[in-house]
Amino acid sequence: MTARTPLSLVDFSSFSDGERPADAFRRSVEMARTAERLGYSRVWYSEHHNTSSVASAVPALVIAHVAAQTSTIRLGAGGVMLPNHAPYLVAEQFGTLEEMYPGRIDLGLGRAPGTDRTTLARALRRPLDGAASFPSDILELAGYLSGESLLPGVQAVPGRGTVPLYVLGSSLYGARLAAKLGLPYSFASHLFPPMLEQAVALYRDSFEPSAVMSEPYVIAALNVTAADTEGDARRIQRDMVGQHVLAMHFNGRAADDEEIARLMDSPAGRHYASMLDHYGVGTGEQVAEYLAAFAEQAQADELMLLVRGPDTATNNRTLELVADAWGLNPDETAGDPTTWRR
């Protein structure tokens, strides 16, 4: 792998105590504008429900908002949790986005609910075993988007001939399915690192060429924090890991200092911290060295960065330092690896 491996971003549209989701959306626009200026390839937004600090419950709306305030960068869902939705509606939503912002929209698909069981069953009114239909739901959705609907007389308008699909995963299941369907595969190693290498190897070894793609395409995600000095970057990293552990365990519930201390020194705390094991931290040059090694380890065609920092200025500085050290060029960014939509 070389420094020409495309770099992209995943954005949780997160917000903190005392803020509103609107603050998160303003930051998302600022991040996308900065990424576009610097030469990052795409930004993806993930679907979460009943999460106290994440505003991206409806990725399609976030994408529309950001796309209206940017010009060239690709934007997508990373991803839509497909079992939560009718494939037909997803095709219409993302087909509409693509017609509004042609050549800029991606659709990543996950099979997890993106929420807890109560929210899934009672608020979203979806079956707890909905993930079992994930393969057939993808085929139905792909049919609408390719203009070859599996339902006679039913077409997605907008939708036909528009948005490329990506299979998201953090286990062997997604890797196997993406390979079988001949679709690009994105591994969520920014939060679920253990099976990265095994899943990517399985995907590449078992990939079946399709009408969509003749060769496998892998996106691997990881966390990054860059600063002007290594010490500053590592201080920010420690704070970000701590915030992640607290958010995972308490999900917005208040906790006193003693309770937090016990958590950080517990097996649960160490487990939550280990979710961020793939983390590039340091100066721009140090992060670039880490990215190059990680890209080789992950056999990745593209890297997707989750930038972790306390505020917009810090995150934008990470983007600038990494872009400079990596040699990003706004005129040389990744596009859609699939072929059918052309």
Automatic annotation (TrEMBL):
The keyword Oxidoreductase applies. Keywords: Monooxygenase, Oxidoreductase. Residues 17-296 form the Luciferase-like domain. Pfam families: Bac_luciferase. Signal peptide: none annotated. GO terms for molecular function: monooxygenase activity. InterPro entries: Bact_Lucif_Oxidored, CmoO-like, Luciferase-like_dom, Luciferase-like_sf. SUPFAM superfamilies: Bacterial luciferase-like. To bacterial alkanal monooxygenase alpha and beta chains. PANTHER family: LUCIFERASE-LIKE MONOOXYGENASE. This is Alkanal monooxygenase. It comes from Mobilicoccus caccae.
